[in-house]
Structure to design on (109 residues):
């Protein structure tokens, strides 16, 4: 996985909506399923397409990048939160990393 933050720069310069969006897509593996991502945005009342996704996941120094609008980034965070609540209702605990080290160590023991 490519780290979304550039090495050697202070965090104020490298912490962008694009880098955070790219990081969260990699973390959730939604970068591998753009159709689902587009559908999630659509269900949240936001319209995106592949070209916007490509532009928003590029570093801002890339001439083909476009800064992700704050409304879209905030919408994405709301989508993730809504998914977490919907899954919790079904006893699927997305993003719940509590006790993960204990669980992993117990499996190897």
């Amino acid at each position: 996985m490519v780290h979304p933050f550039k090495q050697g720069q202070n965090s104020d310069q490298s912490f962008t909506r694009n880098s955070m969006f790219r990081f969260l897509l990699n973390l959730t593996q939604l970068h591998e399923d753009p159709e689902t991502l587009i559908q999630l945005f659509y269900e949240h009342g936001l319209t995106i397409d592949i070209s916007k996704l490509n532009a928003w996941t590029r570093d801002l120094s890339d001439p083909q990048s476009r800064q992700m609008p704050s409304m879209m980034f905030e919408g994405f965070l709301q989508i993730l939160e809504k998914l977490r609540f919907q899954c919790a209702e079904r006893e699927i605990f997305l993003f719940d990393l509590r006790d993960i080290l204990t669980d992993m160590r117990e499996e190897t023991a």
